[in-house]
Amino acid sequence: MEMKQIIQTEETDAGPVRLPVDSETHTFDDWTIAYTKSHILKSVCTNDNKCVQGDENCCELCVYNYALDLPHLPDMVFHRNVLTISHKDGACLQFNPMDALKLVRNEKLDLKVACSEEWKESRSAADTQEKVKPFDWSFTTEYKGTVNEGILVEQTDQKIDMFKLMRREPILFYHDLTLFEDELHDHGISVLSVKVRVMPSGFYILLRYFLRVDHVLIRINDTRFHYEKANSYMLREYTHREAKVEQLKRVPPALFTSPNEIAEHLPVVSKVTEKLTIATSSVNDESVEMSS
After folding, report:
1. 90: alpha, beta or left? (left if phi > 0; alpha if psi -120 to 50)
2. All residues at 6 or more sequence positions from 263 whose CB lies less than 8 Å from its CB, including other chains
3. pTM to 2 decimals?
């Protein structure tokens, strides 16, 4: 295992500021598991709104705005939080916030906060007109990770054996990364995170999108990956669960803030399992276009 810390420097009015970026790698079987972790994306353009699309000096915020074309971004975008799983033959699986946010629907959302009707009644018609381009303000994403051409994806009848994952094994490597988070203007929470766990028998990844609109809706999109040692493939299982809060009256209120606890009470809307097979030919990671 190799651990290191990269120190980046950013110029401000008060002079250069050192911004630490944590970075760690772990080698398992023929795989290299690596992550980077740093601060959230700035909320203002660092070039006085003079950034030009495609310019190499374009600030990170404007790069996101140009790429996503959303009216606004989540409150917290951890743009440098990236988890990468790469194979010696060139196969690569990655998790990053940019690709996840590209799957947010840029259209009007048929979902309202609990107090929306009361808010409309207390304001004039002019105040209630839409001021911004309609989009999915819950930032719901069906992101399942980003794979390159070194991985063949196909549906399968195989299932992830959760009993194997519940066996007690030494944890060789573990990390938890948040990719983005938004508090929905104090009406709930929307968060995308990814966890990786390496054991002697293989590794397990959980990519989870969790949405709670207070007193209205709970939604969980889970994508699980399981690789067993010496296999030439891993299994990917995507599960979409959701329910309106009124359907969960028997669930203790304390569980509504715990994704792990509430997930057991949500009905499954859809579930798909796929096999991600390592391509036999070597692929150059730098020249292969990644696709979600």
Report:
1. left
2. 220, 222, 241
3. 0.83
For 223-281, the pLDDT digits (tens) are: 999 999 989 999 999 999 999 999 998 888 888 888 999 998 999 999 999 999 998 64
Cβ–Cβ < 8 Å for 219, 106: no
What are the start-end ranges of the H helices in the chain? Answer: 60-68, 97-101, 116-121, 162-165, 259-263
What are the pLDDT digits (tens) for 21-46? 789 999 999 999 999 999 999 999 99
Strand, helix or coil at 118? helix
pLDDT digits (tens, 9 = 90+) for 192-236: 999 999 999 999 999 999 999 998 999 999 999 999 998 999 999
DSSP H stretches of helix in 50-158: 60-68, 97-101, 116-121
For residues 180 and 172, give the distance between their C-alpha atoms in angstroms, rounded to a whole number. Answer: 26
CA atoms within 13 A of residue 252's CA, in its CB half-sphere: 4
- Report whether 213 contacts 230 (CB < 8 A): no
pLDDT at 19: 55
Tokens (6 digits) for 143: 């992101």
Structure tokens that stand for 6 in this block? 């990269």
Residue given tokens 């946010």 in the structure block = 101
Residue 124: DSSP 8-state = -
Report the alpha-carbon distance of residue 207 to residue 267 in Å, rounded: 19
Q: How far apart are CA 254 and CA 248, in angstroms?
A: 12
User: CA Rg, the chain, in Å?
Assistant: 21
Q: Compute the distance between CA of residue 160 and CA of residue 226 in angstroms, rounded to an integer.
A: 7
